[in-house]
Amino acid sequence: MMPSPPTPPAAAAPYVELRSAERVPDTHAWPAGPDDHHPSVEAVGRDAVPVVDVGDPGAARAVARAAEEWGAFLLVGHGVPARVTAGVEEQVARLFALPAPEKARAGRRPGEASGYGYPPALHLPKRMWSEGYTFPAAAVRAEFRRVWPDGGDEYLRFCDVMEEHHWEMRALGGRLLDVFFGALGLTADQIAAGETERKIRETLMATMHLNLYPRCPEPERAMGLAAHTDSGFFTFITQSPVPGLQLLRRGPDRWVTVPAPPGALVVVLGDLFQLLTNGRFRSALHRAVVNREQDRISVPYFLGPPADLAVAPLASAVPPGRKAAFRAVTWPEYMGVREKALRTDASALAMLQVEDEGEDGGVPPKS
Ligand SMILES: C=C1C[C@]23C[C@@]1(O)CC[C@H]2[C@@]12CCC[C@@](C)(C(=O)O1)[C@H]2[C@@H]3C(=O)O
Ligand SMILES: O=C(O)CCC(=O)C(=O)O
Ligand SMILES: [Fe+2]
């Protein structure tokens, strides 16, 4: 689900050199849109972003609460070495610091899933104040030959670091998935014996999207990454210590700035997880804002089903005697539905909802 009305896509302009800009050019200046009518607030009191320690015996309960209320949380106690996270940020900064023609060698062409370029699923009237690079996490070595065709030390170092990050995140993804299953009420035995649960855990696919948000001379006129929900199951976001990620809290609607405590990963739930949990866990509307002083890097690691796996509500998430609230869909099908929904200002999840005695299927109102 994305909040903005359908708008003509921005002209396929190449990235402008954002770092040296003294003003925000017209192409990047965002008029006050629906998102901007909500105030941005600090993450304190009832707006404190939930923190979950994955090693805590009460983790499943904490995850259930956060997933129902926020669709997002900060994850600690995950065991990913700080050395790996620091290495990733260093390598991503180095990648984006390469001269423009070197990055352009890996430019993502229309219809391609990977490469240097704009977020593939956001079609917006204005450009965003960021640079991006998307690739399947398992294909880092093949992908980055496009940037460093001759291989060499820089290439090898980049790939080693990204691969180690991928292994850590993939293992953590499987572990957190079981915590989510526990949060739905499954016992350890049921999780171990469940055929669907096993299939989902074993086939989880990972995509990485590297984001650089350069510091901006007029941050209030620019947008780092426009408001969106992620489409997959869930996303781990490794972010630099510079805050910028915001989550939309409802009633009254307000943007909450997610803190960036050292070592914490942000977990954001996606639309297919809302569908998988029959609407019990919610995907989170989020965006990234920019600031005047510092560049910010974020490295989201998207986990979702393989392209040919149809995702339907888990039996354990459908209340006894009720029908599943959504029809089954594959990830590529869902992307198509979402694209169509965007053009008609509809909610993609609502389009997949199955009528059932008029009860709430768990789709939140469009913002
Ligand atoms: C796995 C994916 C999720 C994503 C589309 C993609 O194929 C690769 C990039 C991801 C991203 C990152 C920025 C925001 C977003 C909406 C977009 O346009 O590209 C997400 C996509 C998503 O979650 O649907
Ligand atoms: O920069 C961030 O923290 C968020 C990135 C994000 O939401 C995305 O790439 O999908
Ligand atoms: Fe996102």
UniProtKB/TrEMBL annotation:
UniProt keyword annotation of Ribonucleoprotein present: no
EC numbers for this chain: 1.14.11.15
GO molecular function, one term: metal ion binding
Required cofactor(s): L-ascorbate
InterPro entries (UniProt xref): DIOX_N, IPNS-like_FE2OG_OXY, IPNS-like_sf, Iron_ascorbate_oxido_reductase, Oxoglu/Fe-dep_dioxygenase_dom
Keyword Metal-binding: yes
Superkingdom, taxonomy of origin: Eukaryota
Catalysed reactions listed for this entry: gibberellin A20 + 2-oxoglutarate + O2 = gibberellin A1 + succinate + CO2
Gene3D superfamilies linked to this entry: B-lactam Antibiotic, Isopenicillin N Synthase, Chain
Keyword annotations of the record: Dioxygenase, Iron, Metal-binding, Oxidoreductase
GO BP: gibberellin biosynthetic process
Domain Fe2OG dioxygenase span(s) in chain numbering: 203-305
Pfam families assigned: 2OG-FeII_Oxy (PF03171), DIOX_N (PF14226)
Family according to the record: Belongs to the iron/ascorbate-dependent oxidoreductase family.
UniProt-recorded name of the protein: gibberellin 3beta-dioxygenase
Species, as recorded: Panicum hallii var. hallii
